[in-house]
From TrEMBL:
SMART domains: ENDO3c (SM00478)
Protein name per UniProt: DNA-3-methyladenine glycosylase II
CDD domains: ENDO3c
Top-rank taxon: Bacteria
Keywords: DNA damage, DNA repair
Principal EC category: hydrolase
SUPFAM superfamilies tied to this protein: DNA-glycosylase
GO cellular component annotations of the record: cytoplasm; protein-DNA complex
The UniProt record lists the keyword DNA damage: yes
InterPro entries named among the record's database cross-references: Alkylbase_DNA_Glycosylase/TA, DNA_glycosylase, HhH-GPD_domain
Annotated HhH-GPD domain residues: 58-210
Length: 216
């Protein structure tokens, strides 16, 4: 079954990445230095909205390593990681996989939203970023940051600026302010020069702190 799951994963990459890197390299001194360090690596989408949002919930407030460990155990519980199959899981089994009671509630609510058709999944490609965020934050356990990660990692939207992201703020602090504390307004001002490719620049801020890419 594990082999089947792996075979089902399709990874997509943004067609705009090369153009974005060219633009950022010309416009920004930090990007000119950072971008060549990471070769052809770029944002990747797993192509499954439910899985992406589930991973985001599992990873909330714990380390990347711990999140991956819990995810591996949770992913192994259902026959297939779909909303319908998650709704059939026993709470005790989900807790035994390392999920808190609250995260179990969040994952069940997420599965209910998908399974009931309350989300406009087939219309997301044509919807504005803010409209999608508004729809997603109505789900328990999904705040603006998680919705922004979804825009970046699933829909591959090119101009998302997640100002609530600790890694982004830390990356701006280290790369543009010599490690001095940075306010949201200062971060936003730096990012104005990244538009219309702020998702791409954010990804490189993360890479400057942790070379291994994170995927959702």
């Amino acid at each position: 079954m594990a082999a089947t799951k792996k075979a089902a994963i399709e990874v997509a990459t943004p067609g705009y990445w090369a153009d974005a890197c060219t633009h950022l390299t010309k416009r920004d001194r930090v990007m000119k230095r950072l971008i060549p360090r990471f070769g052809d690596a770029c944002l990747q989408s797993r192509g499954d909205a439910f899985v992406t949002l589930s991973r985001s919930i599992v990873g909330q407030q714990i380390s990347v390593k711990a999140a991956q460990s819990v995810w591996n155990r949770f992913e192994a519980l259902p026959k297939r990681l779909t909303p319908a199959h998650v709704l059939k899981l026993k709470v005790d089994d989900m807790r035994a996989a390392g999920l808190s009671a609250r995260k179990v509630e969040y994952l069940v609510d997420l599965a209910l939203h998908f399974d009931s058709g309350r989300l406009h999944v087939n219309q997301w490609d044509d919807m504005d970023d803010e409209d999608i965020i508004a729809e997603l934050v109505a789900i328990r356990g999904i705040g603006r940051w998680t919705a922004e990660m979804f825009l970046m990692f699933h829909l591959l939207r090119p101009d998302v600026l997640p100002l609530d992201d600790v890694g982004l703020i830390k990356g701006i602090s280290q790369n543009y302010f010599s490690g001095e504390p940075v306010s949201r307004s200062e971060a936003r001002e730096v990012a104005e020069g990244w538009a219309p490719w702020r998702s791409v620049a954010t990804w490189y801020m993360w890479r400057s702190l942790e070379p291994l890419p994170v995927a959702y």
